[in-house]
Amino acid sequence: MIIKPSIFKDYDIRAVAGEELDIEGVERLGQAIATYFKPQTVAVGHDMRITGKDWQQALITGITKMGVNVIDLGEIATDMAYFAAGTLTVDLAVMISASHNPPKYNGFKIVKRGAAGVSGETGIYDLRDLVTADTTFESAAQPGTVSQQDLTEGWIKHALSLVDVEAIKSFKVVVDAGNGMGGKIMPLVDKELPITVTPLFFELDGNFPNHLANPILTETHGPIIETIKNEGADLGIMFDGDGDRMFLLDETGRFISGTLTTAMVAVQMLEKEPGSTILYNAICGRVVPETVNKMGGKSVRVRVGHTIIKEKMREHNGLFAGEHSGHYFFRDNFSADSGLIAALVVLELMSKKGKKLSELVHEFDVYPSLEETNFNVEDKEAMMKALTEHFSAAKAVDWLDGVSIWFEDWWANIRPSNTQPVLRLNLEANNAELLKTKSEEIIAYIESHGGTRAEE
């Protein structure tokens, strides 16, 4: 049996299948989940990854051995697992997925009833300790039952209920599903809308034969940009592998950042519910709080991470939250994230404003920014402290998530990876020249103090 402690992360469980976690380990994890959380019923779904079905069966075996009932959700997108946790009589929902990672990976996201996230602090590390300890799990005298439930129709109906479907115009949309779960869901959504979808890589294939299902990677953008231009499309939508993250491209083929999409979605949400609270993570640019405040809403800056944001959404009764990484959370979606709902809101915004996507983006494209840049750094804490000393003239410094250094005309966030000796640099400035100058300065400082460029 293989089950390495390092696979348990702050927000989920992520492993190289067969090397860091094998089938026996997955079954043992199921037993640990049943023992630790003491649920009566658990919903379990998987995406299109190569090991998805086998891992699901092993997990279900482990859970039911402990006398706990399971609802088998089948092959679903991650946001459908959150929907299950919000609508079914279950104590937990477990999604088997490794999101945008390469084919050799798989993993688990766990949410409680109502789609409240389970993080390292609220159960994942306790699961690690339980499952890796020399513990014998005693099977129940009566094993749990397994039933099947298809949530697809209910999920699509729910997602569409959050926008004014009648207002959406007949846009031409190119959708790149990256051979992920968006390829299963989008044809069904397309039937309910007046849009015309040009599909790219809708065939479900956990080998990702065309490109990794990771829209943040520039090298994945070529096919959708070419198709947008060839088709004269109004916009492009890219989903990640499990379908919970979404990125946009405008009618010119320009990739739209998570910050700009957050600002646009915030506008549409505040049009519906003025004065509401909008959350954004510590990496999002200044245009987000400026837009929210200008519209009379309340902006709240929070740490990165889907479990943290789900918790903060409830704490602040947030209407919407956005992350630079393409996660978008909605109060009326159990405070959970959904790439599909975010895409629908953007279609609604474009329809009601009567503007091209490029025109809408232009309104928010105020501050040039550096694409997130990663560095291998052995002592992450020491490097972050050294940077605050180097920029001691800053008007403010905060440690909400890593360290953010604030000046009047630029700011930077340097944030540690939770799983690797890596620092992530994000920087924004008032103009392109200043962005170049400050980016070069910080990069040179990190590299001259032992840091080296990292891919992720």
Number of domains: 4
Mean of all residue-level pLDDT scores: 97
Within the CATH hierarchy, at the fold level, what is the topology of the largest domain?
Alpha-D-Glucose-1,6-Bisphosphate, Chain A, domain 3
> Largest sheet, described in full?
6 strands, mixed
User: How would the global form be characterised?
Assistant: globular
- What structural class results from the helix and strand content? alpha/beta
Instruction: Identify low-pLDDT runs.
Output: none
Note down, in words, how this protein is organized:
The chain has 456 residues and is α/β, with parallel strands linked by helices. The protein folds into 4 domains: 5-151, 3-Layer(aba) Sandwich (Alpha-D-Glucose-1,6-Bisphosphate, Chain A, domain 3), CATH 3.40.120.10; 171-256, Alpha-D-Glucose-1,6-Bisphosphate, Chain A, domain 3 (3-Layer(aba) Sandwich); 258-364, 3-Layer(aba) Sandwich (Alpha-D-Glucose-1,6-Bisphosphate, Chain A, domain 3); 369-454, Alpha-D-phosphohexomutase, C-terminal domain (TATA-Binding Protein, 2-Layer Sandwich), CATH 3.30.310.50. The chain has helices at residues 23-37, 52-65, 78-87, 120-132, 152-161, 182-190, 222-231, 258-272, 287-294, 306-316, 339-353, 357-364, 380-390, 432-448, and strands at residues 13-16, 41-46, 69-75, 92-96, 105-112, 146-148, 172-176, 196-200, 235-239, 246-249, 255-256, 277-281, 298-302, 320-322, 328-330, 336-337, 369-376, 396-398, 403-406, 410-416, 422-429, 452-454. The protein has a 6-stranded mixed β-sheet with strand order 1-5-4-2-3-6, with helices on both faces. The protein has a 6-stranded antiparallel β-sheet with strand order 18-19-20-21-17-22, covered by helices on one side. A 5-stranded mixed β-sheet has the order 8-7-9-10-11, sandwiched between helices. β4 and β5 form a beta hairpin. α8 packs parallel to α9 (287-294). The chain is globular and about 70 Å long. 50% of the residues are buried. The mean pLDDT is 97.
